[in-house]
Amino acid sequence: MSNPSSHPVNYDDLHAIFINTSLTPSPRLSHTETLMKVAQGIMEAQGVAVEMVRAVDLELAPGVQADMTEHGFERDDWPALYARVKAADILVIGSPIWLGERSSVCSSVIERLYAQSADLNDQGQYVYYGKVGGCIVTGNEDGVKHVAMSVLYALQHIGYTIPPGADAGWIGEAGPGPSYGDAQEDGTHAGFANAFTQKNTTFMTWNLLHMARLLKDAGCFPTHGNQPEAWDAGERFDHPNPEYR
Amino acid sequence: MSNPSSHPVNYDDLHAIFINTSLTPSPRLSHTETLMKVAQGIMEAQGVAVEMVRAVDLELAPGVQADMTEHGFERDDWPALYARVKAADILVIGSPIWLGERSSVCSSVIERLYAQSADLNDQGQYVYYGKVGGCIVTGNEDGVKHVAMSVLYALQHIGYTIPPGADAGWIGEAGPGPSYGDAQEDGTHAGFANAFTQKNTTFMTWNLLHMARLLKDAGCFPTHGNQPEAWDAGERFDHPNPEYR
Amino acid sequence: MSNPSSHPVNYDDLHAIFINTSLTPSPRLSHTETLMKVAQGIMEAQGVAVEMVRAVDLELAPGVQADMTEHGFERDDWPALYARVKAADILVIGSPIWLGERSSVCSSVIERLYAQSADLNDQGQYVYYGKVGGCIVTGNEDGVKHVAMSVLYALQHIGYTIPPGADAGWIGEAGPGPSYGDAQEDGTHAGFANAFTQKNTTFMTWNLLHMARLLKDAGCFPTHGNQPEAWDAGERFDHPNPEYR
Amino acid sequence: MSNPSSHPVNYDDLHAIFINTSLTPSPRLSHTETLMKVAQGIMEAQGVAVEMVRAVDLELAPGVQADMTEHGFERDDWPALYARVKAADILVIGSPIWLGERSSVCSSVIERLYAQSADLNDQGQYVYYGKVGGCIVTGNEDGVKHVAMSVLYALQHIGYTIPPGADAGWIGEAGPGPSYGDAQEDGTHAGFANAFTQKNTTFMTWNLLHMARLLKDAGCFPTHGNQPEAWDAGERFDHPNPEYR
């Protein structure tokens, strides 16, 4: 078997941010974080700088302005988090599942990401262009795909590139039961030996790395036909519609 | 203003397939196809070979096997369509909206795409790796984002790369009303002058082209950490979990 | 413990239709039908007339007209199925899960139900008023809640009443695995002993019966503030908006 | 035209709570509340006691326990809000749309409702049995149905009854634009004259009233086949499965 560390491509200039949207504050255990750490471990083995953020530890004010302290809120930790998101090549959002949906904390993070999405990057594209996104979901019951649908849709819509298989997760059989990583009677941990979960998490992680590498080597996401100011100035990039000027 | 045809990158070796999942058979007008043609026009202006398929004109048997004629159905047009999907670098799925959801024909296409998703490409990756996907949605009422969520999730899950802003669409104000392209009393056509719709369609199209170019120039989606047979043979690609062997 | 058959309310004048939207034609086994039969059994023990329909056995033409044979299709089994739906007090839709979504056959049934939803009943309300709806979902992986969300939303939107806990289902642990009812190595059947699944199915069934009983005893869904022709004639039912006439 | 106030049924013993999950704190204008007030007005004209709550004005701690002050949070306004929800016959949840999804505040409310859903009412049923739920959604763009799907699913799953047409809302044409109620250049207000929105809101409101009346007159949601303690004690309510004991 080949030695993974022999992989010839270098990723150690990449920077990833993992935002865990568990409802549980630190330092208490987050099951979702337990699975996120698998992806983190793979990235770190390649020299990628990974930071793990527990969003519920922060105070993200409700709203869709860049800084809600300018809109009547006393505190808003979003501007500092946004700076970290902008500095990262890769964003992985982790979410638990509640009644089949992503957490309220996850929605709060996405509302704030969305609120900045008309900002521009150095190439005059929307600010998240050139970055790569993925999603990790755990619950004890049902809804990995539904949550991933919602999170990945949001990320691509605001400018992230989504590589193949960018969602991974774990749930148990229908109904209440152990959460990911819970110790079981036989000494194993729920989900740790689930091939589907572990393979998907691994493939997702590598695909995020590959895509981030490609885009970083290209200098940015290619620029033509996707610059709002050019569009607003009247450039139409081969748009064929005679009624649209 | 710059001349778009002066864009220095060449796309004329690319091949795109547009699958329109309208419920309306040819040759009757499909509103969704009307918007898909905007993207088609931009691609063709760059020399891309684009084929437009109306899925409802075909007989796609229900089921999740490669060829349902081997499972009791008299006719199945899926194997021929699958060959065309495999030959294309870019897939754009168009769907109308019915009661907030993608069409049954759209679901049928995705069920068949999914059924092949364990096939492998020449690099030993899942078959759709290296291809790029997008989505166009129209209706007279509500649901562009919900339909796009569902379609783009499916495409990335089975191996497509989703570039930034890969969804575009049009709906009117809440309630019954004109569909995209319907002639209006003032001589204009519904949605043709909607900046949001036209800009998103244009940016989506260019982002599909850029990503297809990047991946084609790279030879394929990069190969490491994403080959099922290596995984099944025991390779773990830096996966750190001690319980998972 | 009380004897269930001693329940003093009589349900034997009720009529239920169960539409199974499996992709698998009869007479082959449908896992979803296996769970639907639990609900059927409870209803039949109370004397309810239950008919089980496998929609994929029928030819439901694509489209949203009452009878697609008037719109170019050679055959359309919908008009006959619609007559049966109209004759039933209770509708239970069963669906498998494919890539986190309801089946294409399920979408087809809902498109056709929706297409009739402006028809009126004897009280001048939308045609499905006074009827009661529920949903049963099975898969081997993930998505019961997402599918139920989509199905129950559609049913209430077109006029069905949804009683408490009107969704039930079964999935296994994340990843490929047995489907509901599959024989296992230890001689049991997947999901048969899952308390969550069996309890939810039982409670759903009784709640459908209770609500159908209440509405049948009331003569219909109460009529005021919900009759389209009165609205169109200018009645506003206490609507307070000064701009809306 | 009949006089609506002549409707012979009396609703003045009913109590409704409207929870608006706008991201905007009081006293600033909430567009969603503007539409919710239409439903409120109809109910109040019938003598129903209606209270309007702006959830973002409260501090709902993240988590899924009854009182998060017992789990490390300094303040939690949920227990007081839960008491009001339990006292009401009708719950209407209002939500804005952000990127096609319900608001984070809406998710927070639903997480807390869900966390109590195993509590029992006086009949030994789940606590929300016998109550009736509906949903109002506004945005400037797209997603009324998707948000309603998510909210109504949650409500029925935890025990609310959903009457016909229990969702209403307003959005404008695709893309940025006015929000519900915004003053327009011609002196009208966005959505005020939209027949679809106003009719749906009116019908929803009356259907909530009718269903609350039916259930209140019945004393409760009928009790048989839906009492968790009986189930846990071994009662099976005609469940036919031989493997399930």
Can you put this structure into words, describing what you see?
Helix content of chain A is 33%, strand content 14%. Chain A has helices at residues 31-45, 78-87, 104-115, 144-158, 195-217, 228-232, and strands at 15-20, 49-54, 90-98, 101-102, 132-138, 167-170. In chain A, helix 4 (144-158) links the parallel strand 5 and strand 6 (167-170). In chain A, strands 1, 2, 3, 4, 5 and 6 form a 6-stranded mixed beta sheet that branches. In chain A, helix 1 (31-45) packs across helix 5 and helix 3 packs parallel to helix 4 (144-158). The longest helix of chain A is centred in the C-terminal third of the chain and has 23 residues, at 195-217. Chain A is α/β, with parallel strands linked by helices and 245 residues long. The model of chain A is unreliable at 1-5 (pLDDT under 50).
Distance between the termini of chain A: 59 Å
Q: What is the total tally of β strands of chain A?
A: 6
Roughly what is the average pLDDT of chain A, rounded to an integer? 95
Which percent range fits the helix content of chain A?
25-40%
Short description:
Chain A has 245 residues and is of the alpha/beta class. The first copy, chain A, has helices spanning 31-45, 78-87, 104-115, 144-158, 195-217, 228-232; strands spanning 15-20, 49-54, 90-98, 101-102, 132-138, 167-170.
